[in-house]
Write a structure and sequence with these properties.
It contains 1 helix and no strands. The chain is mainly α. The chain is rod-shaped.
Length: about 55
């Protein structure tokens, strides 16, 4: 009866590790995407300001 518990526990911990890794990958991807969008917006704002200054 002890062996199935150990197997269940190891399976659960593997699932937890997998889920955490997935979350980290999603977080990293989301942060990268967010940072890229922010940089793009900042660059477009600067371009817009420079165009306004030129006009």
């Amino acid at each position: 009866m002890i062996k199935p518990q150990i197997d269940q526990h190891s399976l659960t911990s593997l699932l937890v590790i997998f889920a955490v890794n997935q979350m980290m990958i999603i977080k990293i991807y989301f942060l990268f995407h967010l940072g890229y969008n922010i940089l793009k917006n900042v660059r477009s704002v600067y371009l817009f300001k420079s165009i306004k200054i030129n006009l």
